[in-house]
Amino acid sequence: MAMIDNDWLGCLQNEFKKPYYKELYTFIRQEYNTRVIYPPADDIFNAFHLTPPGKVKVLILGQDPYHGAHQAHGLCFSVLPDQPEIPPSLQNIYKELRDDVGCYIPDNGYLKKWAEQGVLMLNTVLTVRAHQAGSHQGKGWEKFTDAIIQTVNEQDRPIVYLLWGRPAQSKIPMLTNPKHLILKAPHPSPLSAGRGFFGCRHFSQTNEFLESHGLSPIDWQIENL
Hints:
Elements: H1 8-17, H2 19-34, E1 37-38, H3 46-50, E2 58-62, H4 88-101, H5 112-116, E3 119-123, E4 128-129, H6 141-153, E5 160-164, H7 166-169, E6 181-185, H8 202-212
Parallel strand pairs: 2-3, 2-5, 5-6
Antiparallel strand pairs: 1-4
């Protein structure tokens, strides 16, 4: 695993010392040594490398990584630029972006641009076995990512949470900062997007909130490759 080397390190040093994390680290090393695991080990912490705590403006919370080849690279909902197919949930995110803020639908699902602007793209579980969704749930990642969420909650400035679906919304009791905005909607999965994700206008609401507090908005447009 490529270790975190920015301000997240200071925020998380105590987590790395806890028994659950030592057990998690041992488990993950064994998994990578004996199975096909996604994302590649050096990409596990990409969300933290790209979006240090002091730069977080928005937190998008996913579940576990994509479990197909050449997809996951450490940012929730994002796939590598050479991936020929855009996953269905991301296709629906793009449709809502088009209808909400006028973005064209791009030819790729590589969302690194968002992360570089301060969108922390966090999965609650950071690894998965190939073709086995949820296979690393309950191993300790949830405790680790709860610590991330708590760190964001403690940031004394405006931040927006985009919580899509019940698992993401289960974190709401942790979000106690009155300076922050919580936006909720059904998950963008084809199974639920029609129940309120379409039309939620989360992207324009995010930018309106940021701009109302003197912050630059997120440029949501992902360009064609």
